[in-house]
Amino acid sequence: MPLFAANLRRSPFTNPHIHKKMRNWRYLCHYLLKSELSDMNYWAAFMFTLVFACGGSRLASAQDVSPLLDNLSNEQKLQLLEYLRDLGAGIDQQILASFDVLNAQGKKQAIKYLTAIQPQQNGQTARTMTKWSRDTLYFGTIEEGTIFIDSVEVTNVGNRPYSITNFQTACDCTVLKAPTKPLLPGETAIVRVEFNSVAKSGKIKTGIVLQDNSLPNARQIIYLKGEVTAPKTAKKRPWTAN
């Protein structure tokens, strides 16, 4: 039995003596939080029930909701949440409910993040200061065809969240790993890059431009330097003699 269904069947929804009390959304939110639902079914169920509690005369039962949620993908459940918001369910309640299920450390981080993302009075994009462990990666001398991988660390030393939004390269380089969520002030993350030396030769000096919200230029350049030499063992071509 899905956890969502089990909790609803044990819920006070079916008790006529306290059914009226459940229409109070605060009591409803408190009950749903205590049900310990933490996956996407939880949020779809939460918003679905909240709509009924605020505007409907009948609360959904497990038989109504659970089979429908079980057949949905996470993407469809997110679409359902958006639809329920259009029907009148507020996103603020979902945020507050999410905050309440966090542990003490999670709440501390959430408050820190919420404070950091407060909009600036001038309406401009919030900028921050960063510190990088290195701005140049030296790969020395490598044979043509070698793939070079290295990493750098970035620390947000400002007072606003730091985000990398895009990157541009001028060679066979790519970013293998970068922060997928904003770095809060004081946090550190790894940026991992790759250089493919296939069809390269001679001295190499190139770079990757990371577009971000850092001061002063809203970008960071990671340089790659080294030398690519011909392979020691010549490659056999299908048209050459043995």
Give me the secondary-structure topology:
Blueprint: H1 3-9, H2 25-34, H3 40-55, H4 62-70, H5 74-86, H6 91-100, H7 104-116, E1 130-132, E2 136-143, E3 147-156, E4 164-169, E5 173-177, E6 188-196, E7 202-212, E8 219-229
Parallel strand pairs: 2-8
Antiparallel strand pairs: 1-3, 3-6, 4-7, 5-6, 7-8
Helix pairs in contact: 1-4, 2-3, 3-4, 3-5
Describe, in plain words, how this protein is organized in 3D.
- The protein is an alpha+beta fold and 242 residues long.
- It has 2 domains: 3-101, no CATH class; 130-229, Immunoglobulin-like, CATH 2.60.40.
- The protein has helices at 3-9, 25-34, 40-55, 62-70, 74-86, 91-100, 104-116, and strands at 130-132, 136-143, 147-156, 164-169, 173-177, 188-196, 202-212, 219-229.
- It has a 4-stranded antiparallel sheet with strand order 1-3-6-5, with no helix packed on it. The protein has a 4-stranded mixed sheet with strand order 2-8-7-4, with no helix packed on it.
- Strand 7 (202-212) and strand 8 form a beta hairpin.
- The chain starts with a helix and ends in a 13-residue tail after the last strand.
Number of helices: 7
Q: Estimate the mean pLDDT confidence.
A: 77
Number of domains: 2
| Total beta-strand segments | 8
Strand order of the largest sheet: 1-3-6-5
* CATH-assigned homologous superfamily of the largest domain: Immunoglobulins
Helix content: 25-40%
Percent of residues in beta strands? 25-35%
CATH architecture of the largest domain: Sandwich
| Low-confidence region ranges | 1-38, 53-57
How does the overall form come out from the CA principal axes? elongated
> Separation of termini?
68 Å
Alpha-beta classification: alpha+beta
Largest sheet: 4 strands, antiparallel
| CATH class category of the largest domain | Mainly Beta
Report the C-alpha radius of gyration, rounded: 27 Å
Report the CATH topology name of the largest domain.
Immunoglobulin-like
